[in-house]
Amino acid sequence: MKESGLVKFKHFWKNKKGAVTIEFLFMSMFLIVLFAFLFDLVMLRSTLGKLDNASYTLVSILRERTQLYDRVAQINIDDHKQFEKLAKKLIYGDQNSNKRIDVVLEYWAQDGSGRRIPNIIGDCTPYKKLSDLSYLSPRSELNNERKIPLYQITLCVETQGLFETILLDKSERSTGLIRSSSMSVSR
User: Measuring CA to CA, how many Å separate 82 from each of 24, 103, 105, 116, 184?
Assistant: First the structure.
C-alpha cells in the first residue's frame, strides 16, 4: 500500500502538467500581497503627509497668537475647539466632518505656566512632551536669561492599514492612530 502511494508521488513529481497552474497560483498570491502592501504604503504616506502639513500650518498659526489674539500667549479650551475645526477643514475639507481627528495643543514657558489641552489625553499623545523639549527653546536677544516660550500641536487620525506596524515607526503612530507633531518657538 505504501508502494502505491510512493509510486503516485513519483508519477506526480515527474508529470509536469499541473506545474504551470500551481506556479500561476503562487505568483498570483504573491502579486496580490505585494499590491496590497504598496496600496497600504501609498495611503499611509499620503495621510501622514496631510497630517504633517496640517500640523505645521496649525503650529505656525499658534505661534503667531501674540499678534492674532491680543498678545495672549496662554492657550485655552476655545483655542482647542477652533484648532480642531481648522484641522478638520485642512485634512478632510469640511470643518463639520464626522470623521475623528484628535488635536493636542501644548504651551511651555520658562516660568512653569505651560499647559496641555486637553488635560486628559486619550489615545492621541505627543511623541515627546513639550516639557521634555524645553532645551530647544532659544534665549531672548534682549535678556539672555529668559527662554522663549514653545508651542506644540499634535494631530491624530484613525487608519485601517494592514501593514501599519511595519511601515510606521513609534513617532508616527499612537494606539491605532497615526500622528504628527510640530513644534515652534513663540513670536
Answer: 55, 10, 11, 15, 19
Question: Which of 103, 92, 79 minimizes the C-alpha distance to 156?
Answer: 103
Yes or no: say if 157 and 52 are a contact pair by the CB < 8 Å rule: no
CB burial readout 61-93, b (16+ within 10 A) else e? bbbebeeeeeeeeebeeebeeebbbbbbebbee
Beta bridge partner(s), residue 185: 150
pTM of the predicted protein model: 0.75
Q: Using one digit for the tens of pLDDT, what is the confidence trace for 134-161?
A: 666 667 677 777 777 788 898 988 887 7
Q: How many residues does the chain have?
A: 187
Q: Which residues pair with 104 in a beta bridge?
A: 154
Backbone φ, ψ for residue 61 (5° rounding): -65, -40
CA distances (Å), 55 to each of 31, 88, 154, in order? 36, 11, 7
